[in-house]
Amino acid sequence: MKYFRWGLICAYKILHGLSIRTDNETEMSTDKGKIGALWQQFDKTVDVDYKSGERVYGVYFDYESDASGQFNVLVGFDGKNRPVSVPLQKVVIPAGQYLVFKHKGEMPQIAIDGWTEVWDYFADENAPQQRAYSTDFEFYPNGNEIEIHIAIK
């Protein structure tokens, strides 16, 4: 696994999707976690046109504080054709510096492995970067790859 600093990703990356508010304690509980159900709802509701280049994202934003506080999660996509029957929330991924963790393999294991690596990296008190807790996101180039972008100070 390689981490690397990514400078300016774009001035604005606009996504639309479904969102919830949660916290890590809730998500660690197998019977109370909300994020898995949010992904399932998105998959049933939004028709993503992968052939024309549309991609899906998981965006983590509006952090209350740090890893112990609440935050919003939006499961969304960068497509232009949004369903009219379902109101989708808009979120903007801001330009900034991100540490990127890439994994390839089978879902959901690559997401689990990716986030485990994020947690392990930032648990090290000697880590060269510190999390900003502003906007983080998962980008899925295809069904077998994940890039987890963590905003850094």
- The overall pLDDT, averaged over residues, is 90
Would you identify the regions where 5 or more consecutive residues have pLDDT less than 50? none
Q: Care to count the β-strands?
A: 8
Q: Nearest-angstrom radius of gyration?
A: 15 Å
Main sheet properties? 8 strands, antiparallel
Task: Label the structural class.
Answer: alpha+beta
Strand order of the largest sheet: 1-6-8-7-3-4-2-5
Count every helix, treating DSSP H or I runs of 4 or more residues as helices.
3
Task: Categorize the overall geometry.
Answer: globular
Portion in helices: 10-25%
Q: What's the helix-strand series?
A: EEHHEEEEHEE
Strand content: 35-45%
Can you describe this structure in just a few lines?
Helices cover 20% and strands 37% of the residues. It contains three helices and eight strands.
Q: How does this model look, in words?
A:
The longest helix has 15 residues. With 153 residues, the protein is of the alpha+beta class. Helix content is 20%, strand content 37%. The protein has an eight-stranded antiparallel sheet. The protein has three helices and eight strands; from the N terminus they run E-E-H-H-E-E-E-E-H-E-E.
Features:
eight-stranded antiparallel beta sheet, globular, single chain, alpha+beta, about 150 residues
Secondary structure layout plus pairing:
Elements: E1 3-6, E2 12-23, H1 24-27, H2 35-45, E3 56-61, E4 70-77, E5 89-94, E6 98-104, H3 109-123, E7 135-140, E8 145-151
Antiparallel strand pairs: 1-6, 2-4, 2-5, 3-4, 3-7, 6-8, 7-8
